[in-house]
Amino acid sequence: MSSSVTVFVTSPDTRSERRFDLHISVSQLKNKLELITGIPVPNQQILLLNGEQDTQPIATLDDDSKPIGFYGVRDMQVLKVVDTNPSTSFTGQLTDLSQVEKFELTEEAYAQRQDTVLAYKLRNKIGRFAEKDGESSSASKSVPDVKIPIGARCEVETAEEDFHKRGTVRFVGPTKFGNGEGVWVGIEYDEPIGKNDGSVQGVRYFECKPNYGVFVRPDRVKVGDFPVEEINFDDEEI
């Protein structure tokens, strides 16, 4: 017959599986359980149960001088440690919320802080602080009226002499790039001298082949009857 047993130790705040020698006294067991449960020895009442769901104990280990084997402790049984005076024990201080001083903050003080969820929502216009449908942001209110028709032929201003960047206007309006301010003109070039395919940063504004699209400010666009020019990219010298 084995001289030790494996049991479950439960308390108001802990649950663990432990192995004890059947020859140790109840007094020695209490010293070990204080380290496990945090319940002081004088506050401990040890109940022996067949299972954790049981409400009626098989025995109460109440004689400090007797070995725990005297109470017929077997493997997989439960030693339930009851705290008879939680207000004076470490365990009681953790579980008794009435002893915790609560931090309170007035609505006015909370609204003035900058490290709160409220402040974050205000800064980023989230939730109830988001702009309502029909409201225009300050940027959209300042968007000028640009009279550049979609589909118009155009020429984009360039610093290179005798180099004409010609194409067709495909988009006119505000964008999500460039801080979302002002108006941009999206142009599909006649030749692959652009920078994109009509989309920027994952947002599509118009459709065109890769490297045929570009976005410029309206003051760089001249609308008119500009025929398609074939650009010779071959070097004139070898």
CA-atom Rg in angstroms: 40 Å
Estimate the strand proportion: 15-25%
Figure out the total of helices: 5
**What is the mean pLDDT?**
86
Parts with pLDDT < 50 across at least 5 consecutive residues:
none
Biggest sheet descriptor: 5 strands, mixed
The arrangement of helices and strands along the chain is EEHEEEHHHHEEEEEEE
Please state the overall shape, judged from the principal axes of the Cα atoms.
elongated
Give the strand line-up of the largest sheet.
2-1-5-3-4
The N- to C-terminal Cα distance equals: 100 Å
Structural class given helices, strands, pairing?
Answer: alpha+beta
- Total DSSP E strands: 12
Fraction of helical residues: 10-25%
Provide the descriptors you would attach to this structure in a database record.
238 residues; 5-stranded mixed beta sheet
Question: What does this 3D model show about the protein?
Answer:
With 238 residues, the protein is an alpha+beta fold. The chain is built from 5 helices and 12 strands. A 5-stranded mixed beta sheet has the order 2-1-5-3-4. A 5-stranded antiparallel beta sheet has the order 11-8-7-6-12, with no helix packed on it. A hairpin with a 2-residue loop joins strand 9 (199-200) and strand 10. The mean pLDDT is 86.
What would you say about this model in short?
The chain is of the alpha+beta class. It has helices at residues 26-37, 90-95, 107-112, 117-124, 138-141, and strands spanning 4-10, 15-21, 44-49, 59-60, 78-83, 153-156, 165-173, 184-189, 199-200, 203-204, 213-216, 221-223.
